[in-house]
Amino acid sequence: MKQALIIVDMQEAFFLDSENYLFDYEKVLDNINMLITGARNSEVPIIFIQHTDSNKDNDFAFGKPGWDLYHGLLRQPEDKVIQKTTWDAFYQTELAQYLQEQQIEQLIFAGAQTEFCLDTTIRNAYSHGFHHNILVEGAHTTLHSLVLKAEQIIKHHESVWHNRFVKIQPTTFYKTK
Description:
- This protein is of the alpha/beta class.
- Helices cover 28% and strands 20% of the residues.
- The chain has 4 helices and 6 strands.
- The mean pLDDT is 96.
């Protein structure tokens, strides 16, 4: 089954101010970079999703320092970057067409934020016919909310997604292949 690694919204905005630091971000970044290395070694295409806000004052607005993909990611020029303007990486983007052209059958997900863009994209991927997707444990994260701690948000979404929209795999996913 031909795969693609999709990394959602790992952008500088989450690393510029301690108030916006993603939960457990150092571990998550290490795990994402391990996935990138594994994908590259397995010749799996790597797709970075980049949120682009239409509000020019937003940290995620085109050209703002927070808009750039995080400098600590092991990104290469040949990696695909797809900009999105909503929580859904499929909505009015080239993602579905690109996956079809590349004959991708299985998506491997990582990134941020668990309950927003990652959740919306994972569910829509299933609606687009990708029914055998993978989410790597410890390779996605979010911020604390007013109601729940980030750990609770992550665990809740993993319990909803697992064996429905994705199969959750350990961080050693590529090492065990």
